[in-house]
Amino acid sequence: MTMLKILFSLVLCGLNYPLSAQIKGTVSDLDSNPIEFANVAIYSLPDSTLITGTTTDELGSFEFTTNNSNDKLLRVSFIGYETQTLHAKPHQEIILNSDTTMLSEVVVNGDIPRIRLRDDAVVATVENTVLSKAGTANDVLKRLPAITQDDDGAFSIFGKGKAKIYINNRELRDISELDLIASSDIKEVEIVHNPGARYDASIKAVIRIQTVRKAGDGFSFDVRSTYLQSEDNVDLRQQLNLNYRYRGLDIFGTVKYEKYAYVQNSTLTQTAFVDTLWTQANTLDVDGEVNPLTTIGGVNYEINPNHYIGVKYTMRSYPGKSSDLLTTTSDVYANNTFYDRWVNLSDQDNDYKPRHRANLYYNGKVGNLKIDFNSDIYKSSQSSKTKVIENSEEYDHRSINSTNKIDNRLFATRLVLSYPLMGGNLSFGNEYTRTKRNDDYSTDMDAISSTHTSIEDENNSFFAEYSRSTLI
Predict the structure, then answer these.
(1) What 3-state DSSP class applies to 114?
(2) Closest by alpha carbon to 121, among 208, 248, 18?
(3) Is 146 helix (H, G, I), strand (E, B) or coil?
(4) Which end of the chain, C or N, has fewer beta carbons within 10 A?
(5) How far is Cα 282 from Cα 270, in angstroms, rounded to an integer?
């Protein structure tokens, strides 16, 4: 019996072994110096979907345990070095070459950014490094350790998920704001893998951006222009930044105009196995355009070195026509016999009312007590009119007209108090958020009901946290 158990265990081990595999290795430069905090990510083949990722340790080492079901790609990157993409193997020694394109223009005035651990975060210096030449804050984050960006522009941390972003302790509620911040205006970025009690329990990772406090008095401005041409559309961005500083007063403004045209072509086949075998082959063509205009104005005031206060107002409007033209062609078969062809034309006109956002902040210090207060107000309203014409080869045609109106409201405040205590730091505070959304939908077709949806959410939370660094 004992021998049978041993044989049975060996068989199970043999069956389980192919289900997982270890991939490990080291990353170094041409002089055999280990590269710490290099991004190492594994992608599946053939779709290049991100499976997992990590960063190298102080010895340049990395290690994964992954599914062994198919081939994988290993992508290794670090600021100032050329990215390498190669097939993943159980053990690899990877040597990165210097990125001469990145370094050629900034080698005199910029260095490779210093990345280090500080308290609860990995900190990357941006000021006076090659990262200060990256372009915008969006471009900086894409180059930092353990950070990835998805197709919607949101940033995530390896092994943690979507990250909450803060700029000078103010929560970022619009990801497009990152494109308004020049990389040269960033001092450092903190990447927090394990947020403490001061953050909501649903927040798994945090990115904190600290900007450079401008010195000197006077008026300044800069103009940025971006033009992107693809085979099917053109994207355009024009931006003007204005700034006036006098002693502790800092007045700023931004005007940005964007034009985004987009085209989508896709095919989809659906099969329903019921009493009759229904097959529907769809072809979808989308042609749309949106033209947002963003204006920003605000004031920062340094009362004295221990007290800062400021207000920022943002308005986004859509002066041009925003529309979507969608064409869907569907060939329908019943038990592999042609049943009908539907051609649906959907023309949607969008009316975006100006979106308003205001932020008030205060950062101060009274004795050893640090105070950080932020408050946000947001209001938006949009409506759309859609006309759908359904043409059928075998049956009747029909048209459907519908309208949809959406109103959003947000009010949020956050207060954090910090005090040094017994060699550590005691933090406590409150976060309050209230949101409201109304959604009204109506149609002229009796078979489709008009709806009204109202959603209200209110959260009020308190926290306390004590942290102290220890050497083991």
Answers:
(1) coil
(2) 208
(3) coil
(4) C
(5) 8
